[in-house]
Amino acid sequence: MDSTLCAYMMKEEGYEIVALHFNYGQRTVRKELQAFRSVCRDLGVENPYEIDLDFFKTIGASALTDHTLDVPTGGLEAGVPITYVPFRNGIFLSIATAVAEKEGCEAIAIGVVEEDSSGYPDCTESFIGAFEKAANLGTKATTSVTIKMPLVRLNKSQIVAEAIKLNVPLHLTWSCYKDEDEACGECDSCRLRLRGFEQAGAKDPIPYRHV
Prior knowledge:
Blueprint: H1 2-12, E1 20-23, H2 29-43, E2 49-52, H3 55-59, H4 88-103, E3 107-109, H5 125-137, E4 146-148, H6 156-165, H7 188-200
Parallel strand pairs: 1-2, 3-4
Helix pairs in contact: 6-7
């Protein structure tokens, strides 16, 4: 939902969208890829990038990529949860920087949310700002990329409200960490999403097994 809203906000600002998606061995890889393709069609994006990163499963250490670990369903907790994928956004941004340099892009947009990030250290404004500096140091002198994070200071209810305002097809998006047919309604990501819709006074259009 966050990444999708981010793309529509960039389109609203007049950017031409180069869409990038990662299959990194996450539990809901099939559903997320389906959602990405559906959103790209709605945005009118041609030739989107779909990149496979199987090494995340080799690294493990996350319940999203190591299926021997259980995805927590006991509610949001303090600290960095087991669903954190080590340095995932740093790796994603590195590849996005390479794509941006190839395509001649002015900006990279990422849908990180600091307040509702479940404690993930790679979703913070300070990290993204530092990465932007590193990206521009490590690319050609003619490359100058700004990393935009339009959602970073919003909470989930504000994200839902902004998505509704921009007519974002929220029914095409997927947030669940566990399941692909019906969202579980119990993992951190589902809880954050459901709470956002509730606080925004809106109904989530995707199906849930537990609400």
